[in-house]
C-alpha cells in the first residue's frame, strides 16, 4: 500500500473515531457567540476540558494532516520542478 494512501486512511479512521466522541455541530453552535481572538480562546478551552482520548485524537489528526500536507508539497515540488536547474 502506498504511504500516502495509508496516511489518508489513518486520518479518515481518526476523524471517524473523533466524530463518534464529539458532536461537532454542537461545538460550533456553542462557539457562535464569540468572535476574533475569543474564538481561539473558546476552542483552546474546549480542548483542555475534553477527555484525554479526544485530545489524543485531535493531536493525531493534526500530526497526520501535517504529514499529508508535507508529502503533498514535496511531491508537487518534485513534479513541478523536476526538469529545472535549481
Task: Based on the model shown, name its key terms.
86 residues, mainly alpha, extended
Descriptive overview:
The structure is a single chain. The protein is an all-alpha fold and 86 residues long. It has one domain. Helices cover 79% and strands 0% of the residues. The protein contains 4 helices and no strands. The chain has helices spanning 3-21, 24-30, 37-49, 52-80. The longest helix is centred in the last third of the chain and has 29 residues, at 52-80. The chain starts with a helix and ends in a 6-residue tail after the last helix. The model has no long low-confidence stretch (mean pLDDT 88).
List the helices and strands and how they pair.
Elements: H1 3-21, H2 24-30, H3 37-49, H4 52-80
Q: How many distinct helices?
A: 4
Our count of domains comes out at 1
Helix percentage: over 70%
Structural class: mainly alpha
Mean pLDDT: 88
Biggest beta sheet attributes: none
Q: How much is the radius of gyration in Å?
A: 17 Å
Instruction: List low-confidence stretches.
Output: none
Question: What pattern of helices and strands is seen along the backbone?
Answer: HHHH
Determine the strand fraction and express it as a percent band.
Answer: under 5%
| Count of extended strands | 0
Give the overall silhouette.
extended
Distance separating the two termini: 32 Å
Amino acid at each position: 500500500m502506498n504511504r500516502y494512501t495509508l496516511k489518508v486512511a489513518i486520518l479518515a479512521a481518526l476523524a471517524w473515531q473523533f466524530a463518534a466522541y464529539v458532536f461537532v455541530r454542537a461545538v460550533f453552535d456553542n462557539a457562535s457567540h464569540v468572535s476574533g481572538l475569543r474564538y481561539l480562546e473558546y476552542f483552546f478551552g474546549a480542548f483542555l476540558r475534553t477527555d484525554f482520548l479526544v485530545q489524543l485524537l485531535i493531536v493525531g489528526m493534526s500530526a497526520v494532516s501535517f504529514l499529508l500536507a508535507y508529502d503533498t508539497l514535496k511531491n508537487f515540488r518534485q513534479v513541478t520542478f523536476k526538469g529545472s536547474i535549481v
